[in-house]
Design a protein that fits this description.
Elements: H1 44-57, H2 78-84, H3 87-90, H4 102-119, E1 123-125, H5 131-148, E2 156-160, H6 166-173, E3 177-181, H7 191-197, E4 202-207, H8 220-229, E5 233-238, H9 250-253, E6 257-260, E7 280-282, H10 284-287, E8 294-297, E9 306-309, H11 325-361, E10 377-380, H12 382-388, H13 392-401, E11 408-409, E12 418-421, H14 429-448, H15 450-454, H16 467-472
Parallel strand pairs: 2-3, 2-4, 4-5, 5-6
Antiparallel strand pairs: 1-7, 6-7, 8-9, 10-12, 11-12
Helix pairs in contact: 2-11, 4-11, 5-6, 11-14
InterPro entries: GcvPB, GDC-P_C, GDC_P, PyrdxlP-dep_Trfase, PyrdxlP-dep_Trfase_major, PyrdxlP-dep_Trfase_small
Organism: Anaerovorax odorimutans
EC number: 1.4.4.2
């Protein structure tokens, strides 16, 4: 498909702006460009068709099954989008006087109350823009706490070998030495190794529970106890919160701080569908270090008034103003629709769907860990590769030909030829049965026609690209033949 610049025809145009109704002002020559902007020159029809074709090439949850492991790609109810589009919410400027944004502040306050109830935490900051940003913010909280207590010798963060890849990156960004903790044969954290690694130089532990294998660690209370006894703090990666929300709370497991992905767990668009929100929640003793301004309520007539207040020993800001506030509004709408009974029901169905798929596939695909899964599970194509040369990547690419988005591949790293599947709670049994049938058929094809799978996908608009080269040498800018010295 040609780029929009390649479709451009010199002199072609359209009018999209009304006639100027104010006095035109000219700038001095030294403030003006010496060459015209390189904008594509097209008609309205051409532009409309170009972007319609692009949209047809995109794949989202509205198009079909999207079992991307550890990403919780569930359907986003349109009522959330409707709420977030209210002009009373969108036509607000973050620098307005506090008394003119009381409704928005109530939204933030209510969202904080409900999220604290779900997580077992005491305070929330909505500034972080996404999950990894939330990780970074949570670790800055831990660092601020140790610094305030003059415990600067704590320079190590313990991270399981099955962790999300952003965990060690966030630790390194905060200046910590990242120490990998091995998993045991059941897929949980090795307690003996953890106890041996935890010490007076341990700042904290980053952990996801259930972990990236989809397993709820039965030793979770012992794990957090080991870290606390060593003087460290426990950080909960909220990427897999969808499996346990309303049933068990990270705060009750012994975690001190965590982030949530509102754009995953609480149903707002994920990935290319919209902006993220990765609020950080913490226990009361850490609230004084939270970033930026937080909503509080003053005493007074008619229940008082909302205002912004800076935490006493805040380490600063990690974002602007309220954070991605409209994502918070969508998450609040989602929670209000679900209610107290609906939140745990959602988690239970997410787990049920994953268990169902796992049970229907374990006779044809290798399941490296036999522990009962939660909201996701990992299968291995290691034996398939050994017997047919068909890899996990081949299986994933073949799924595209059947209209299914591929699952996460080659993650977690401790599973060879891994395919990580998370069906979420919003998929019907019919959809799951169809996906199961397709995965079983792909395995049959691996033995009957491995060469076909090695070239998949065959029906997609883009066949199999050289992803390694694309990642290492990305081309993200169109190059005009004669523009090297443009202003």
């Amino acid at each position: 498909m040609d780029l929009i610049f390649e479709k451009s025809t010199s002199g072609r145009r359209l009018s999209v702006l009304p006639v100027c109704d104010v006095e035109e002002v000219s700038f001095s020559p030294d403030r003006c460009r010496t060459k015209a902007l390189r904008l594509p020159q097209m008609s309205e029809t051409e532009i409309s068709r170009h972007y319609s074709r692009l949209a047809e090439r995109a794949y989202g949850v509205n198009d079909g099954f999207y079992p991307l492991g550890s990403c919780t790609m569930k359907y986003n109810p349109k009522v959330n989008e409707t709420v977030a589009a209210y002009k009373e919410l969108t036509d607000i400027h973050p620098l307005q006087p506090e008394d003119s944004v009381q409704g928005w502040m109530e939204i933030l306050d209510s969202a904080e109350e409900y999220l604290c109830g779900i997580t077992g935490m005491d305070a929330v900051s909505f500034q972080p823009a996404a999950g990894a940003h939330g990780e970074f913010t949570g670790l800055l909280l831990i660092k601020a706490y140790h610094t305030a207590n003059h415990d600067t010798k704590r320079n190590k963060i313990l991270v399981p070998d099955s962790s999300h890849g952003t965990n060690p990156a966030s630790g390194a960004m905060c200046g910590y030495e990242v120490i990998s903790v091995p998993s045991n044969e059941d897929g949980g954290l090795d307690l003996e190794q953890l106890a041996a690694m935890a010490g007076e130089d341990t700042a904290g532990l980053m952990l996801t529970n259930p972990n990236t294998l989809g397993i709820f660690d039965k030793d979770i209370l012992k794990i957090t106890e080991i870290i606390h006894e060593a003087g460290g703090l426990c950080y909960y990666d909220g990427a897999n919160l969808n499996a346990i929300m309303g049933i068990v709370r990270p705060g009750d497991m012994g975690f001190d701080v965590m982030h949530m992905n509102l754009h995953k767990t609480f149903s707002t668009p994920h990935g290319g569908g919209g902006p993220g929100s990765g609020p950080v929640a913490c226990k009361e003793f850490l609230a004084q270090y939270l970033p930026g301004k937080r909503v509080s309520k003053t005493e007074g007539a008619n229940g008082g008034q909302y205002c912004f207040a800076s935490p006493e020993r805040s380490f600063g800001s990690v974002g602007m103003f309220y954070g991605n506030a409209l994502v918070v509004a969508k998450a609040l709408a989602y929670l209000l629709v679900l209610g107290r009974e609906g939140v745990p029901y959602t988690a239970k169905n997410a787990v049920l769907n994953a268990k169902y798929m796992k049970a229907k596939l374990e006779d044809v695909y290798s399941i490296p860990y036999s522990e009962a899964c939660m909201h996701e599970f990992v299968i291995s194509a290691e034996d398939l590769k050994r017997e047919t040369d068909v890899t996990a990547m081949d299986v994933a690419k073949a799924m595209i030909d059947y209209g299914i988005h591929p699952p996460t591949v080659y993650f977690p790293l401790i599973v060879k030829e891994a395919l990580m599947i998370e069906p979420t709670e919003t998929e019907t049994r019919e959809t799951l049965d169809e996906a199961i049938s397709i995965l079983r058929k792909i395995r049959e094809e691996a033995y009957e026609n491995p060469e076909k799978l090695a070239g998949a996908p065959h029906k997609a608009a883009i066949k199999r690209p050289d992803e390694v080269t694309a990642a290492r040498h990305p081309l993200v800018r169109y190059s005009f033949a004669e523009c090297e010295n443009d202003d």
